[in-house]
Structure formats: C-alpha cells, structure tokens
Amino acid sequence: MKALAYLSRGRSAFLVWPVLLAIVASFAFFALPRAHSQSTTTTTDAALLDGFRHTEVASVSDALEKVNGLRMYMSHRMRPLFPSKFAGIALTVKLKKEENHDPDALNGMLAAIDQGGPHSVYVMVVEDGANIAGMGGLMGTAMAARNFAGAVIDGGVRDTAYLQKISFPVFALGNVPSTSVSHYRFAGANVPVVCDGVAVSAGDIVTADADGVVVVPRAKAAEVLAVAQEMDFKEHSMYAYIEKLKSIEEAVKKFGRL
What is the pLDDT at residue 257? Predict the structure, then answer.
C-alpha cells in the first residue's frame, strides 16, 4: 500500500510539473513582445536621430516640402549663439505674458526641464518675447546636465557667454539681458505650440544647423529622412561633377537636383 501511495504521489507530481511549466512559459510569451516592442521603438528613435544629425537641414526642409507640401522651417530671425548642429525630440513649453508677483508662476517651466532627458530639444514660446530672455545660463546648465540636444527659443536668451562656455547649443531670436520673472506665467508643457511661425508638437523631430531650424512631424519622420538623405547624396555628388564640367546646367540635368 505504501508503495502504491508513493507511486500515486509521484504520478501526481509528474502531472503537475508540465502544468507549472506551461504557466511559466505563457508569462514569458506575453512578456516578450512588450520588451521587444520597447527595444524596437528605442532603436528606431536612435536611428532616426542619428540620420537627421548627419543630414543637412536644407535637405530636410526640401524633403518636407516634397512629402508634405508644407513649410516647416523657422525664419532667418532664429539664429544660433554659436555654430551648432543637432537633432532631437521636441519638449515644448509655453509662457504667457502676465505681470505678477507670484513666486511659483514659472515653476512648471523648471519642472519641464527636469522631466526631459537625452536627445530632448527644449522648444519654448515666449508670448511677445523678442525682448525677453526665455532662458539663460542656469536653465542651459540643467539641460546640458540632462543631455538635452539643444534649445530653440521663440524669444530672447541671456548669459550667452556662459552658454558658449559650456557649449550648449541654443537658437533664439536674439540676445537680451532681461528676465521673464514677474512678467510671465507658465502656460503649459508638451502642448502644441507655434514657434517662430512653425507648428511644433511634443515628440516631433527638431533639427538645426547653420542654415536654420526645421521641424519634422513625428509621423512623417522616417519618410522625410529617406527623401532628405537621397537629396543630400545627390547634392554632394554634384559638387565634383560641376567642378569637372564647369557647368551647373549639366549637373542638374544629370542628378535632377537644385
């Protein structure tokens, strides 16, 4: 009888193990796609940004017009503090004009910086802010410490010598010594904004170089990059061709790019 009981227990244990293994396997099965998806998304973003960093902004602008039929470049007023080139993901901030004595009026602006991370581009719109510094050295230091790609300010910027010293790239409407404290109130972060005439949503790709700043809607980023890279390749190939033939007309006929 003891032998039969032992055999029965052994048979039960033998039957239970496959069930346990099946349960564990099912958890693993459902967990894997999520991890894979997150990894794929991260890889895709990294590849996109790397592509835009190595593509001229002028080609990106042309590609956007070809793909979307839209002007997505900022005006000549948006200038860099020093020669800079970057591409990153938009983190938008909006300030509204309001005279106040509220010490917490701009807290949301600071919180937005501390929520950003590697590859973020701080896109700030300061209402009627051409003569108001939207950011300065303290904010730039925080962004640099958090590995932001850069900042684009529809307003002024100050502490420019220090920003140059730490090599944090900023595009803005001009250098001014003023402050937004007591004159502005935080009006939102990661909200749609219009920066120097261009619509920007959180998560869009912002790319900048000596030619200016361009915004690429996230949904069109991969398509725009592919077209821009093709345009870049053609244009760079044309330089030697023009020098050799001493004719821009022949180069345009051959490459179909101007």
Answer: 66
Q: Is residue 65 part of a domain?
A: no
Q: Which domain holds residue 123?
A: 73-216
Same domain, 104 and 207: yes
Statement to judge: residues 115 and 197 lie in one domain = yes
Q: Is residue 62 part of a domain?
A: no
- Nearest one of 81, 91, 85 to 113, comparing CA atoms: 91
Tell me, yes or no, whether 58 lies in a domain. no
**How many domains, the chain?**
3
> Does one domain contain both 137 and 91?
yes
Q: pTM above the 0.85 mark?
A: no
Identify residue 215 by its one-letter amino acid code. V
**Amino acid 37: pLDDT:** 39
Question: What pLDDT, on the 0 to 100 scale, is given for residue 35?
Answer: 34
* CA 150 to chain centroid: 9
pLDDT value at residue 192: 98
Tell me phi and psi for residue 204, to 5 degrees.
-65, 160
State residue 112's pLDDT score.
98
What pLDDT shows up at residue 256?
67
- DSSP readout, the chain? -HHHHHHHHHHHHHHHHHHHHHHHHHHHHHHHHHHHHHHHHHHHHHHHHHHHHTS-HHHHHHHHHHHH----B--TT-EESSS--EEEEEEEEEEEE-----TTTTHHHHHHHHH--TTEEEEEEETT-TTSEEE-HHHHHHHHHTT--EEEEEEEE--HHHHHHTT--EEEEEE-----TTTEEEEEESS-EEETTEEE-TT-EEEEETTEEEEE-GGGHHHHHHHHHHHHHHHHHHHHHHHHHT-HHHHHHHH---
Q: Which residues of the chain have pLDDT under 70?
A: 1-43, 256-258
